[in-house]
Amino acid sequence: MSPKAGIRRAAGSFVAPGTLVALVAVIVILLAAAGAPILSDQSPLDQDLTAMNGGPTAEHLLGTDNLGRDVLVRLLWGARTTLVVGALGTALAFALGAGVGLMAIVAGRLTEMLWFAVIDLIRALPATLLGVLLIVALGSGTVPVIIALGLSFSPLVALVVRTAHAREVARDYVAAAASFGGGRLHVLVHHILPNLIGTLVTQGAIVLPRCIVTESVLSFLGLGSSPDEPTWGRMIADASRFIEQAPHAILAPVIALIVLTTALSVLGDQLRRRLDPTRAAAMPADLAEASPIATAWTAEGAES
Amino acid sequence: MSRWLPVLFALLAGLARAVGIVVVTWFLCRVMPGDVVDVLGLEGGLSEAQQADLRVSLGYDRPIVVQFFDWAQHALAGDFGRSVRFDRPVADMLASAAPVTIELALGSFVVGVALALGLAIAATSMKSRLLEAAVDGLNIWSIAVPTFCAGVLGIIVFSLWLGWLPVIGSLILPIIIIGLDNAGQIVKLVREDLAEAVMLPHVRTARAKGLSPWRIAVVHVLPVAAPIVLVLSGLVLSGLVAGTLTMEILFGLPGIGSLMLNAVHGRDLPVVLAAVTVVAVALVAINTLVDALHRLIDPRVNR
Amino acid sequence: MSTSTDLPDMPVRAAVSRHAPPGEDAAGSDPFACPILEVRDLTIRAGTRELVRDVTFSIGAGRTLALIGQSGSGKSMTAAAIMGLLPPGVSLSAGAGIQLDGRRLPIHDDRAMRAFRGSALAMVFQDPMSCLNPFMTVGAQIDEALWRRGMADAARRRERTLDLMQAVELPSPEVLRRRLPHELSGGQQQRIMLAMGLAAEPRLLIADEPTSALDASVQAEILTLLERLQSKFRMAILFITHDLAAARRLGHEIMVMRHGRVVDFGAPATIFSTPRHEHTRALISVRRMLEQPPPPRARAGETVVDVQGINFDYPPRRFLDRPFPALSEVSFSLTAGRSLGVIGESGSGKSTLAAIIAGLKRPVAGDVRLFGTSMAGHDFAMPRALRRRVQIVFQNPHGALNPRHTIATAMREPLDLLRIGTRRDRLDRVVETLNRVGLDADFLARYPHALSGGQRQRVAIGRALLSEPDLLVCDEVVSALDATVGAEILHLLRRLQMERGFALVFVGHDLEVVRWIADEIAVMADGRLVEQGPADRILSAPGSAAARSLVQACLKPVRC
Question: Which has more confidence, C298 or C117?
Fold first, then answer.
């Protein structure tokens, strides 16, 4: 075995525990969010007026914030909002980008052009700006945030889906299916969707953490859900004014958010590696000899 | 002519997009539940009749389309009306807020693109595992650590623990934080594009010519990557909005972001409208220019 | 490694040729003199896989070694090794030695090899379009090669650039010099590549499939040009090709590679008269087969397809562009049981025509009558009853099968869609058809990537035949395959046609292949059908300029 292969193997075994840690982190956060009502004996709004901006104690494991609310309890309840809003935003982005996008493409050139003109317009507005606008228009609350997230990230999904669709439609097996009398729906269901699933899952893994981050940004800016509902972003915003007195109150949600997004993106990266057809796999073996480069790709693909 | 036609189309498309954005923005802002008069009415205890008078004086009683064209006409001349809360011309408020935001955006853009390009080129030419890890690390950092979290960490570490920098009003820390984020967003893409460009047949031709690696990189590889770098720079600029907005709030910088946010909370409609419009149109303009430039420098796009 | 039991695969020491009689054309030089290039025990590995094993050969001054091999034979790797351009992850064995003019090349040291590239060594590649820098004018790219060679004076470089462009027979060099690569034709691009190679004043020019990406008539021109350039500049040439005819035409010696080994070597006459290895024999028998097409079949039976004055435009790429006409006023007809070959260069509209006949594209004007039914009358939506009778097979066997479907799923698709047979007997039909195309039931559960190109093309043909069509359209079905595999597919098609009696529209760009399968030939050029007639007549007395240039390009001096 060459030393290079040894390094590669070592790197491979290094990746696996990383993925495992990420998986465990995501599961723990999910369980904590689901079990928030059981795990906490108080409401996230309960104030302990004897301990304001207090450090960690046996009673308040992660301390209290400026209003004497338990940081750990708020963290648990905040996870619920953050996760649910992020997931629903992602779902909406997929419904608009992939669902409506594919329907518009399959329906015909005109609907495709119209829908993608809309997508183009949405794309011109950054997510945060669109969020500000929608919350101005619809008032603050959870629903406008979800709509803002769904709208902002739908272009990302829609464009990837359109590219993947165009790539698949140009394949000869689609033409062959048409020559057997297969209609657009048959081609979509039997040929295009199965080949799109990998792309869609990968894209989901990219969009979900970004939705979660954007939700936090919006609630940090005070544009998210109502003040009664604890979210990580709002906790950071509230605690940022008392950063010197109570750094623990701000560190807790910041670290929680970083752990969640890091774990999600590590998992997403692993998914991408597994699902996305790589260049090496897409390269027809017979072409491999045609250029040394092609051979290099296939050779590397075979090794890894 | 054939070379400029696509550029012209790109510019026209950008113009259409800008108009679309302005129209959408304006009408979205106008469906806002509870206008400024309601807020002032609650705060200042205005009577129904006073509120109605105020609405007339603000022109809110006219048909909405008329209001839009009236607003657009003035806006084109640089007149965004007066702030309802501060009774100052909105244009003045924007003008005094803009330098901070521009400094923040431009600074972090330069830091980000320079860092990403430098790191990607170094990783491509040196084949070092350390640089490769730096590319990946920076990329993961930008995905996983939102800028405002990085900002909080920065304040705690540099200001509270080390006591290096004054927190409020400082531009250095926000510029570095957004710059790192920008770099992380594009560094991996630039690196992958360079790795692909190195494998292109014409680069093999250049090697077969016996050219030095340095000349191959500059003359034969970089031009291939230039359009991508250009497009990615546009991406970075769009991504700057979230970063500057949160950094301005966190570090108490009086930029357009702070202006916009305060106006949103205070239902100061003319200011919200103007701030959102200006930022959105500026972004569309930048992206349009990037697109046009891309078509101009890359002979392959228009084939 | 190799023992006496596998004699045919023993590496042939090509260097022994120095004691063999010289080739028929010695080009005025002495092959026994010190060779320009000597390659010894060249073994190339990618990881643990050996791409090239124990290759040894030499090339004398002013001589051409034609290196023949099919895909995967290691021929391009051999060339890359000589240039020091092996891709990452691919390495040379320590025992390998390459000498240029008696000096050992530092093949294990990339930096040191750079001194030889672009001076003593030059290389021309397969696809000139992608091998030229798209951002630089072609003049600047030749200029760069001269600068690399050490010509410091810009005015002299410009003069020399024009000289070189003249030497490669480019018209009006002063104008072309300022063009970007994509503004030139494929043939012109390859001439630029050659001029760039010549700028180095190389001792050895490696031409790696320099004509494979070009149209037939252009291929012949480039080969002639290579010959002329060699007699003028006197360098040694390593000419890599998969085309036996081209190898014979250019090579003073021919070397045959297969699976990374040299299996045959000799002067062209020797190779063709007494091939040593069965692979060489297979290659030659493909040539012989193509040179002796079977007699045409009688014109009989009803008209199967009648194309009447069809036009087709490609939609404009961008807003306000004009549509691009792909076909104009194309008419022909074909009777049952016969084959029509449609031939033309790339962009002539032949594949569009195939797609229209198969009902995959809709012409803007004209009519296609299939078995007497007007397609225009059906608004070009082919009724299911007709779909069964008209089937199409595509060029690229990799693309024609969905990578996520097993062969069984892929082959059931037409039966399900066309509602042929009962659900129960569909599988039996699939197995029977697989047998017919020379595959067995083991293939049912496999995925396309586990099949070779030839096997995949067999599956594609079998799938098209499942509905027992009366008209089969074949769009370049052998172009992506190696010659020996392609020949098998041609035989298969002919046998199936005999058994089933379908009419065949065979679209191709290689006149010899088309002539072999077709009774009649239609020649396409720029979207028009310029000539149609019996295959023999088209070959012996081409009436149109397009047909003449195809015939001339094809009549390569190969008489075995």
Answer: C117
pLDDT at B28 over 50: yes
Smallest CA–CA distance, residue B165 to chain A, in Å, is 14
Q: Would you state the pLDDT for residue B37?
A: 65
> What is the arithmetic mean of pLDDT over B45-60?
73
Distance separating alpha carbons of residues C400 and C458, to the nearest angstrom: 11
Give the containing element (helix H, strand E) for C52: strand C49-59
- For residues B114 and B186, the answer to whether their CB atoms sit within 8 Å is no
Q: Tell me the chain C residues in contact with residue B220 when contact means C-beta distances shorter than 8 Å.
A: 133
Query: Is C182 in Cβ contact with B299 (below 8 Å)?
Result: yes
pLDDT tens per residue across span C52-105: 999 999 999 889 999 999 888 889 999 999 999 888 888 898 888 999 998 899
Q: For the domain A3-303, what is the CATH superfamily, name and number?
A: MetI-like (1.10.3720.10)
Spell out the residues 6+ positions from residue C415 whose beta carbon is closer than 8 angstroms to its own.
C421, C426, C429, C430, C466, C467
Query: Residue C154: how many CB atoms within 10 A of its CB?
Result: 11
A3–C contact, CB cutoff 8 A: no
Residue among B205, B219, B294, B302 with most chain C CBs within 10 A, to mutate: B205
- DSSP-based helix, strand, coil % in chain C, nearest 5: 40, 25, 35
Q: Which of the listed CATH numbers 1.10.3720.10, 3.40.1190.20, 3.90.1150.10, 1.10.1200.10 matches domain B90-265?
A: 1.10.3720.10
Count interface pairs A-B at CB distance under 8 A. 119
User: For position B40, what pLDDT does the model report?
Assistant: 64
Instruction: Tell me if B209 and C83 make a contact (CB, 8 A cut-off).
Output: no
Residue C522 banded pLDDT, cuts 50, 70, 90: very high
SS3 state at A91: helix
User: Any chain A CB within 8 A of the CB of C463?
Assistant: yes
| Sheet strands (E) in C217-323 | 236-241, 253-258, 261-266, 303-314
Q: Report how many Cβ contacts below 8 Å link chain B to chain C.
A: 70
pTM (2 decimals)? 0.76
* Contact present, A18 and A266 (Cβ < 8 Å): yes
Residues 143-172 of C with CB under 8 A from B: 144-145, 148
How distant is the Cα of B31 from the closest Cα of chain A, in angstroms? 6
Contact assignment for A292 to C392 by CB distance below 8 Å? no
Q: Which residue of A has its CA nearest to B29?
A: A137
- Mutation choice for B interface testing from A133, A138, A231 by most B CBs within 10 A: A133
User: Span B76-86, mean pLDDT?
Assistant: 82
Closest by alpha carbon to B250, among A225, A254, A131, A211?
Answer: A254
Domain ranges for chain A? 3-303
Q: Do A181 and C399 touch (CB under 8 A)?
A: no
Whether C49 sits inside 8 A of A293 (CB atoms) is no
Neighboring chain B residues of A250 at a CB cutoff of 8 Å:
152, 156
pLDDT, one tens digit per residue, over C3-53 is: 333 333 444 444 433 333 444 444 444 555 578 999 999 999 888 888 999
Contact C47 A175 (CB under 8 A): no
**Record: contact C77-A186, CB cut-off 8 A:** no
Q: What pLDDT sits at residue C2? A: 36
| C114:B300 CB<8 A | no
Structural domains of chain C, with CATH? 1-15+33-120+202-292 (3.40.50.300), 128-201 (no CATH), 303-553 (3.40.50.300)
CA distance A277 to chain B (A): 16
Q: Tens of pLDDT along B238-272? A: 778 888 888 998 888 899 999 998 888 887 888 88
Q: What angle do CA B18, B24, B25 make, to 5 degrees?
A: 85
Tokens standing for residue A84: 């649910």
Which stretches of chain A drop beneath a pLDDT of 50?
1-2, 4, 6-14, 277-304
